[in-house]
């Protein structure tokens, strides 16, 4: 909700100060409060737009823990946080030593290191289910000392100050974009919340209250849009990138600092960084450390309260219009957005690519087989020969062509052979709606679509922001292998909590409180035995 952090956690329940701070501490949220202008009374935007992915996940966890239910379903609650915070949450919430220690807990996970700690493991594989009852591994509590137990200094608790913040907390364009395309928080369910469509609202609210609340949000959204600061110009006629820009992908960041608002702490503080063309960089750090903020400034999503410069291949990026600049970089965000409509329109809304390119990308990302699985000729797309795949593309092109294009295809001898009688456009070609082909997409499948889009566009600089956090380890490995072949000559910046994802990087950056705390090859950083080594020790990778 567009309300304070506290209201988002209480969610209509009474404020029990002692238990509330216990929950905040157990969710490792106390540290985060230091950089927010009004501690736990800071307004977090609709869908948690003002906070990081890991902070959103921990807020949802705090809400459900605060509700004191008897039975908990925690849907992959730890995938968005780093190893140290993960341990903290296991100790303080999920395991027998934690706040939920005496409750029945169902936890979905793709990490063996977590299932090892459970009494029963239900494995779901291709629709079949197996159950194993086990003695949980003895867990040695990890003393991470990350969070003070006391509540932080009382800062801006007066409603007056609250008003000040909400009035000055104007939205950035990037946030509005995120907000209109984002999916909102997946809260874990508890028996104190309505689990239906109204789960967003406190239980005691009537439908009228809900309707009024919705209208309130609607009006506020318009107000926010009206108050939106003008972005940098879309196109600057005197400085336009050539079609091939950037030629190499070398990045230089000098003395760069950024705040999300005048009342906020620094999200990025005095960043100095030189990345060579083609280098593969892993970016890690505690949740809220500034990793996504670094990606945002690279895409020029933040315009105010910034200082310093960023250049790519020697060109200061602030000199370009944002409309010219942003599409030159590739990005797979924490949550890829898809919209209703055909697969074709989702991959290529501007109709810039031909069908072969789209199919090739879908095949590489392992999505094509879903689309073809019902078709008799292509029951198992993985088993199709290259020739058959090519035939499928030609058939698709033929099916979609008007008479003139078919004529051109005849002249170019690109007519589908009689043997490829399958009309793959119907019912499972690119014009099929995403929903019809995939039903409800998993977050992992959405990410694969994001990858598909980037593969088609072949950018020299690609940023992956927790792109594979929600896919299982095996898929993550194949995605990483795909990235290393597809983007071998590109500069790739990979933000990840899961260390397997970035262990093969040329260099690793460890971020901490908006600064670059460590930088070096994985080997150098391990030998240094600093923050990176600590993250490795606390991660599944370390085990
Ligand atoms: N739009 C925003 N407005 C205000 N503060 C923000 C906004 N986005 C992020 N922040 C704050 O900036 C800090 C850095 O956030 P960022 O998203 O860069 O962290 P992160 O390292 O990517 O975290 P995570 O691993 O949880 O995704 C956090 O304290 C966060 O609360």
Describe the structure.
This protein has 543 residues and is α/β, with parallel strands linked by helices. Helix content is 36%, strand content 16%. It contains 21 helices and 16 strands. The protein has a six-stranded mixed beta sheet, with helices on both faces. Strands 8-7-10-11 form a four-stranded antiparallel beta sheet, covered by helices on one side. α5 (83-94) crosses α21 and α20 crosses α21 (531-538). The radius of gyration is 25 Å and the shape is globular. Residues 32, 35, 49-55, 175, 260, 264, 267, 285, 287-293 line the site of adenosine-5'-triphosphate.
Low-confidence stretches: 140-168, 170-206, 374-380, 421-428
The amount of beta strand, in percent, is 15-25%
Give Rg in angstroms: 25 Å
Number of H/I helices: 21
Could you give the order of strands across the largest sheet? 12-13-14-9-15-16
The proportion of residues forming helix, as a percent range, comes to 25-40%
Mean pLDDT: 78
Shape: globular
Largest sheet: 6 strands, mixed
Number of strands: 16
Distance between the termini: 38 Å
- What would you call the structural class? alpha/beta
Ligand types: adenosine-5'-triphosphate
């Amino acid at each position: 909700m567009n309300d304070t952090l506290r209201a988002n956690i209480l969610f209509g329940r009474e404020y029990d100060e002692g238990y509330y701070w216990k929950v905040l501490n157990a969710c490792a949220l106390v540290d985060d409060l230091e950089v927010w202008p009004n501690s736990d009374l800071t307004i977090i935007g609709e869908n948690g737009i003002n906070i990081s992915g890991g902070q959103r996940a921990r807020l949802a966890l705090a809400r459900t823990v605060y509700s004191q239910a008897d039975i908990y379903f925690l849907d992959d609650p730890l995938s968005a946080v780093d190893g140290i915070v993960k341990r903290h949450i296991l100790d303080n919430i999920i395991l027998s030593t934690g706040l939920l220690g005496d409750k029945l807990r169902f936890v979905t996970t793709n990490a063996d290191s977590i299932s090892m700690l459970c009494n029963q493991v239900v494995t779901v594989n291709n629709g079949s289910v197996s159950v194993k009852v086990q003695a949980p591994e003895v867990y040695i509590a990890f003393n991470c000392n990350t969070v003070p137990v006391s509540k932080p200094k009382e800062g801006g608790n007066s409603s007056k100050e609250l008003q000040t913040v909400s009035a000055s907390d104007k939205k950035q364009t990037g946030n509005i974009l995120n907000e209109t395309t984002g999916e909102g928080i997946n809260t874990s369910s508890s028996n104190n919340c309505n689990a239906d469509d109204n789960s967003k609202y406190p239980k005691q609210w009537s439908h009228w209250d809900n309707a009024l609340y919705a209208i309130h949000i609607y009006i506020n959204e318009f107000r926010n849009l009206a108050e939106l600061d003008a972005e940098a110009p879309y196109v600057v006629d005197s400085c336009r990138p050539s079609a091939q820009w950037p030629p190499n992908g070398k990045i230089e960041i000098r003395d760069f600092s950024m705040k999300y608002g005048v009342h906020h702490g620094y999200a990025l503080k005095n960043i100095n960084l030189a990345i060579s063309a083609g280098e593969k960089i892993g970016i890690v750090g505690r949740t809220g450390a500034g990793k996504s903020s670094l990606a945002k400034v690279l895409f020029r999503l933040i315009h105010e309260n910034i200082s310093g410069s960023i250049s790519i291949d020697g060109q200061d990026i602030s000199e370009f219009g944002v409309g010219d600049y942003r599409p030159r970089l590739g990005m797979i965000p924490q949550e890829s957005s898809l919209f209703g409509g055909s697969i074709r329109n989702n991959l290529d809304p501007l109709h810039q690519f031909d069908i072969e390119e789209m199919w090739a990308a879908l095949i590489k990302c392992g999505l094509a087989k879903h689309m073809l699985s019902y078709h008799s000729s292509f029951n198992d797309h993985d088993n199709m020969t290259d020739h058959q795949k090519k035939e499928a593309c030609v058939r698709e092109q033929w099916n979609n062509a008007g008479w003139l294009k078919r004529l051109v295809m005849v002249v170019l001898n690109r007519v589908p052979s009689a043997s490829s009688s399958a009309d793959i456009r119907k019912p499972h070609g690119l014009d099929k709606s995403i929903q019809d082909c995939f039903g409800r997409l998993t977050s992992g499948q959405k990410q694969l679509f994001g990858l598909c889009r980037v593969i088609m566009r072949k950018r020299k600089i690609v940023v992956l922001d927790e792109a594979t956090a929600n896919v299982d380890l095996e898929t993550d490995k194949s995605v990483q292998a795909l990235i290393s072949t597809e983007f071998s000559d590109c500069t790739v910046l990979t933000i990840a909590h899961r260390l397997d994802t970035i262990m093969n990087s040329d260099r690793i950056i460890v971020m901490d409180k908006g600064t670059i705390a460590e930088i070096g090859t994985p080997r150098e950083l391990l030998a240094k035995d600093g923050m990176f080594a600590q993250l490795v020790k606390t991660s599944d990778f370390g085990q």
